[in-house]
């Protein structure tokens, strides 16, 4: 059996080498695609092309008697790598005017990410930070755009410290709350103003499929080139009012981070055996534990600022606290009928999204299981 098994494994190794060779050739072609896209200003992410390619490959797989899901998994991973390869070829510069991009806080992680993207697009980028703030007037004198990317608790003060900007200079910020920074920028600068919120961390390899929210401030026609530039990088730009944005962020960020924080504190204070939890976890619980652990691997000041950034966040968390208490009473009373009633109400509220989320989560669960050692 050993001889027969080794012979079969050798043949599999040969096929694997062929696969590696084909992937290398594919990535070489992708690099050429990136150069063409860069020349003509085509975004690195084309949702229609991706959808069409996956549909064709799934059909090919069915005709070949192979699992379409397997082939889709392989090609999605290939495409993620392809976007990263295209990203390194540079981008078309949308802005045709004069002036530099000034990133206030550009030495931070998010600042460095956008610094690289602007440089890849042919812009002159200047960094303004605590060490050269005394030169701010000189640095922003010919700025086409000034981007504020500093901690939440410093954003308003930094905006107010800015010197007078050129009339057509775009003033924007990357803060995860929008109403107060946007109001401050509108008071500070009479020219074009827009609030931006990159909905991702600085560790992303590229902006393909990433979302950047933008909240209109003033003179949209003059900041439109910045929006278009970010689309070229592959991002999806989502317009929303500052008030609606902050309301959504209370759920997406503040409440979610608070529940993860509280769960982590509870695990630690209950002296849970983390190694055993990981060993015994199902894929779904492993994912949940990952998200909690991910929070505690990052900057505590950042999450404190996000959670405590507004009274709206605090009120929402208090509502959650009271509902949590109500649910505790329900299970203490053993009221299974009311539990099922609440469950069905929420199921109805989710509607078709419930089944959609089951489908979308399946690939995540497979990945969590694959990563188990």
Quick rundown:
The protein has 373 residues and is of the alpha/beta class. 64% of the residues lie in helices and 10% in strands. It folds into three domains: 86 residues, Chorismate Mutase Domain, subunit A; 141 residues, 3-Layer(aba) Sandwich (Rossmann fold); 90 residues, 6-phosphogluconate dehydrogenase C-terminal fold.
Key attributes of the depicted protein:
single chain, Chorismate Mutase Domain, subunit A, 373 residues, Rossmann fold, alpha/beta, seven-stranded mixed sheet, 6-phosphogluconate dehydrogenase C-terminal fold
Show the helix and strand layout.
Elements: H1 2-40, H2 47-64, H3 68-87, E1 100-104, H4 109-120, E2 125-128, H5 136-139, E3 143-148, H6 152-161, E4 170-173, H7 179-188, E5 193-198, E6 211-218, H8 220-232, E7 236-239, H9 242-269, H10 274-280, H11 283-295, H12 300-307, H13 311-332, H14 336-350, H15 352-370
Parallel strand pairs: 1-2, 1-3, 3-4, 4-5, 6-7
Antiparallel strand pairs: 5-6
Organism: Frischella perrara
Subcellular location: Cytoplasm
Domain Chorismate mutase: 1-90
Sheet with most strands: strand arrangement? 2-1-3-4-5-6-7
Number of folding domains?
3
CATH superfamily of the largest domain: NAD(P)-binding Rossmann-like Domain
| Helix content class | 55-70%
User: Multimeric state of these chains?
Assistant: single chain
Principal-axes geometry comes out as globular
What order do the helices and strands follow?
HHHEHEHEHEHEEHEHHHHHHH
| Tally of DSSP β-strands | 7
Give the DSSP E fraction (strand runs of 2 or more residues): 5-15%
Radius of gyration: 25 Å
Domain Chorismate mutase: 1-90
GO cellular component, one term: cytoplasm
Protein name: T-protein
Domain Prephenate/arogenate dehydrogenase: 99-361
């Amino acid at each position: 059996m050993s001889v027969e098994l080794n012979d079969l494994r050798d043949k599999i190794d040969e096929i694997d080498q062929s696969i590696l060779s084909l992937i290398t050739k594919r990535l070489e072609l992708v690099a050429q695609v990136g150069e063409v896209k860069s020349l003509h200003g085509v975004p690195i992410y084309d949702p229609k092309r991706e959808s069409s390619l996956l549909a064709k490959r799934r059909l090919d797989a069915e005709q070949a008697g192979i699992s379409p899901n397997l082939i889709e998994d392989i090609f999605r991973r290939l495409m993620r790598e392809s976007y990263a390869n295209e990203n390194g070829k540079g981008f078309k510069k949308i802005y045709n005017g004069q002036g530099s991009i000034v990133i206030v806080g550009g030495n931070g992680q998010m600042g460095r990410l956008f610094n690289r993207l602007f440089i890849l697009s042919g812009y002159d980028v200047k960094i303004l930070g605590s060490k050269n703030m005394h030169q701010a007037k000189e640095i922003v004198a010919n700025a086409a755009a000034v981007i504020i990317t500093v901690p939440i608790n410093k954003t308003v003060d930094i905006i107010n410290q800015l010197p007078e900007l050129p009339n057509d200079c775009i003033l924007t910020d990357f803060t995860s709350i929008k109403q107060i920074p946007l109001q401050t920028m509108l008071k500070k600068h009479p020219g074009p103003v827009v609030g931006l919120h990159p909905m991702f961390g600085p560790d992303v390899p590229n902006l393909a499929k990433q979302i950047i929210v933008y909240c209109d401030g003033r003179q949209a026609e003059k900041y439109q080139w910045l929006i278009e530039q970010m689309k070229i990088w592959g991002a999806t730009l989502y317009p929303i009012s500052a008030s609606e944005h902050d309301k959504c962020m209370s759920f997406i960020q503040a409440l979610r981070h608070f529940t993860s924080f509280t769960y982590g504190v509870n695990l630690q204070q209950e002296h849970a055996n983390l190694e055993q939890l990981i060993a015994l976890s199902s894929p779904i619980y492993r994912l949940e534990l990952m998200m909690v652990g991910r929070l505690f691997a990052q900057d505590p000041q950042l999450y404190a600022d996000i959670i405590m950034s507004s009274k709206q966040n605090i009120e929402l968390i208090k509502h959650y606290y009271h509902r949590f208490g109500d649910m505790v009473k329900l299970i203490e009373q053993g009221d299974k009928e009311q539990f099922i009633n609440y469950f069905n109400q929420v199921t109805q509220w989710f509607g078709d999204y419930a089944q959609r989320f089951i489908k979308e989560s399946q690939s995540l669960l497979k990945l969590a299981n694959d990563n188990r050692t």
